[in-house]
Design a protein that fits this description.
The chain has 174 residues and is of the alpha+beta class. It contains 4 helices and 6 strands. 13% of the residues lie in helices and 23% in strands. The chain is elongated. The chain starts with a strand and ends in a 21-residue tail after the last helix.
Length: 174
């Protein structure tokens, strides 16, 4: 992880370059603080801590985060989880999120992140914009299709799919 820190007396802004896919929500929202043509490119002293935090919460990848120094509450995220498939792009998640390995090890706890769905990311499971150079297309079907007649007639899960016991370690069936 390549995280840089930008500090004021009230706030530390954290930028993880490995998670940034250049959506530019920060630049468009608060160009006096986030200017990629300047060095350092983040200047939190150029706006109030509230403005900076509000802008950071718009970052869909979680590449920008903040730590408060004033004793205020940290970012907690939405109580509900939302997942948005971006056409020809990542899955954008918001909420109280935890990314866990197959073995059960926590990779990260976040409030915002973008997950790869093209299969080309060098930073999996996170999106690194590889879908652009791979010219990947999502072929999103639009509204959910109606279940097949076989699924509608199914009396148990065994009639619609093969068992997947290996998906969860023993004792962690959810």
């Amino acid at each position: 992880m390549a995280t840089r820190r930008y500090e004021t007396d009230e706030l530390t802004v954290l930028w993880d370059s490995s998670r940034c896919i250049h959506v530019a929500a920060c630049i468009g929202s608060l160009p006096s603080v986030f200017d990629p043509n300047e060095r350092p490119w983040v200047r939190p002293e150029n706006a109030s801590a509230e403005e900076v935090m509000r802008t950071i919460r718009r970052c869909p990848t979680g590449a920008l985060r903040y730590e408060r120094k004033d004793g205020g509450a940290p970012e907690t995220g939405r109580p509900e989880t939302s997942i948005i498939p971006v056409p020809n792009g990542p899955l954008v998640l918001r909420g109280r999120l935890e990314v866990v390995t197959f073995e059960g090890e926590t990779v990260t706890r976040e409030t915002r992140l973008s997950l790869c769905r093209c299969g080309h990311s060098a930073n999996a499971p996170f999106c690194d914009n590889s879908h652009v150079t791979a010219r990947w297309e999502s072929h999103d079907p639009g509204p959910a299709p109606r279940a097949s007649q076989a699924r509608e007639r199914a009396a148990s899960p065994a009639e619609v799919s093969a068992p997947q016991e290996e998906w969860f370690p023993e004792g962690d069936e959810q």
